[in-house]
């Protein structure tokens, strides 16, 4: 398979009926290295760029593959992620705003 065929299907875990998004991995970033050398943190950045409305910040998501939470410092090769694999995006909870009780004058 050529490098230009390297793509992943991305699925938002909290939207099971939504269609998968196809993420084409750019080959120029790694030069002579295989695309499996991409880090999970870089993959999160690519996903946030593609799904800006759903994923505004790569720090606010976890990636899941074959039931395993992917660690940012590992690579696609480490987890055995191949072209055409589906990676699930799990949005982390947004922090609750601090609520102060109303004071009466």
The named CATH superfamily: Phosphatidylinositol 3-kinase Catalytic Subunit, Chain A, domain 1
- Quick one: CATH class? Alpha Beta
Mean pLDDT: 77
Helix content class: 10-25%
Strand order of the largest sheet: 2-1-5-3-4
GO cellular component, one term: cytosol
Protein name: Ubiquitin like 7
GO molecular function, one term: polyubiquitin modification-dependent protein binding
Domain Ubiquitin-like: 39-92
Structure description:
This is Ubiquitin like 7. It holds the Pfam family ubiquitin. It comes from Ursus maritimus (Polar bear). Residues 39-92 form the Ubiquitin-like domain. GO terms for molecular function: polyubiquitin modification-dependent protein binding. The protein is an alpha+beta fold and 105 residues long. It has one domain: Ubiquitin-like (UB roll) (Roll). The protein is built from 2 helices and 5 strands. It has helices at residues 40-50, 76-79, and strands spanning 7-12, 21-24, 61-65, 68-69, 86-91. It has a 5-stranded mixed beta sheet with strand order 2-1-5-3-4, covered by helices on one side. The longest helix is centred in the middle third of the chain and has 11 residues, at 40-50. It starts with 6 loop residues before the first strand and ends in a 14-residue tail after the last strand. The model has no long low-confidence stretch (mean pLDDT 77).
